[in-house]
Amino acid sequence: MENHASIPKQRIMVQAKAWILPKYFDGFPKDSDFELKVEQLPEPKDGEILLEAVYLSVDPYMRPFSRVRMKEGDVMIGAQVAKVVQSRNPLFPEGSHVISRSGWRTHTVSDGTGVILLLSDWPADVPYSLALGAIGMPGLTALYGLEEVCQLKAGETLLVNAAAGAVGMVVGQIAKLKGCRVIGSAGSDAKVAYLKELGFDQAFNYKTVQSLEQALREAAPEGYDCYFENVGGAFSSVAIPLMKPMGRIAVCGAISTYNDTTPQTGPFPHLTMIMNQIRMEGFLVGRWEHKNKESLRRLLVWKQEGKLKCPEHVTSGFENMPAAFMGMLRGENLGKAVVKA
Ligand SMILES: NC(=O)C1=CN([C@@H]2O[C@H](COP(=O)(O)OP(=O)(O)OC[C@H]3O[C@@H](n4cnc5c(N)ncnc54)[C@H](OP(=O)(O)O)[C@@H]3O)[C@@H](O)[C@H]2O)C=CC1
Ligand SMILES: CCCCC/C=C\CC(=O)/C=C/C=C/C=C/[C@@H](O)CCCC(=O)O
């Protein structure tokens, strides 16, 4: 009689889907750059959890980071809000929600490394998706870029581009809360109208203005104390010479360059930076990770007090991840772009 004890326990398999990048992007991403993979996941071992994606983030950083954080054939990087559907780890109770950097996957078996429980008192009326946006990494980016890098002060004038996006919109609202004058640029008239509704002092469509320099000069004839840079490229070549003496530039991103196959070269405003003693500092949001808990609380309180509006651009369906990502890069989003699994 066969000893059944010797037959390995059939591990229950979960069917998971994942988007992989077989080859690095070359220029602007296209549908054929992505491949959908189906994988069978074993049930969690002792100490492990099974996560099911609820919302997944699509962010600009994925374009440049894919070359430095991924090998060809890897699952696309990214963060998601996930539900713990099975747990053999007491730190992550079944039914709890977490932020996980699992990438573009529907399900993940994890030992909990890098997995963060959402704030324990996450309000019932606040969508979990905001944990990927204004009450998450983009919101923190805005807060740290303004407070730690720009060191923005009341009464100063701030310029922010990609202002109707996940980071830019939080930048502008926090700057208004700090008693500053805020100028924003965005790529559609609808976005510009929304920014003005939000309380931006001036907003303009950089795609349709006759002259970017003229639009920037008219918006702030005295110049800019702080410039929150999300776009880079030609925009910054025009904006930097319009900084006030002792101005500060927080270099957050350069999305106008991410899909370039040949690097842009532009006028180099170094002399004006010297003469005006401009400080220009690149930063990554992770530098202040030690402050995240208190910072997320601040952002959440502003949201609950109605002082921080958090619009989202939600795409439904995991199968639409590539479309959501490419749409965000094309400027289709007003607010944070997320995918509802
Ligand atoms: N340093 C850091 O730690 C972090 C940096 N970032 C950076 O912040 C910036 C904004 O990110 P995020 O808020 O998540 O993204 P957004 O939600 O703003 O979406 C990207 C937006 O960029 C704009 N855009 C795209 N291409 C161009 C272009 N060629 N010229 C001008 N604008 C363009 C589009 O809006 P529009 O309609 O205005 O064109 C698009 O909606 C990015 O540069 C990103 O890399 C983000 C998070 C962390
Ligand atoms: C390869 C050069 C990249 C230059 C910087 C490009 C864009 C700036 C930017 O958007 C940075 C975003 C940082 C986001 C950080 C997110 C973290 O929560 C997780 C990042 C994933 C990882 O570090 O593997």
From TrEMBL:
Major subcellular location class: cytoplasm
Catalytic reaction(s) noted: 13,14-dihydro-15-oxo-prostaglandin F1alpha + NADP(+) = 15-oxoprostaglandin F1alpha + NADPH + H(+); nonan-2-one + NADP(+) = (3E)-nonen-2-one + NADPH + H(+); decanal + NADP(+) = (2E)-decenal + NADPH + H(+); 6-trans-leukotriene B4 + NADP(+) = 12-oxo-(5S)-hydroxy-(6E,8E,10E,14Z)-eicosatetraenoate + NADPH + H(+)
GO CC annotation, single: cytoplasm
Location(s) in or outside the cell: Cytoplasm
SUPFAM superfamilies linked to this entry: GroES-like, NAD(P)-binding Rossmann-fold domains
Gene3D superfamilies: Medium-chain alcohol dehydrogenases, catalytic domain (3.90.180.10), NAD(P)-binding Rossmann-like Domain (3.40.50.720)
Protein family membership: Belongs to the NADP-dependent oxidoreductase L4BD family.
Entry protein name: Prostaglandin reductase 1
Name of encoding gene: ptgr1.1
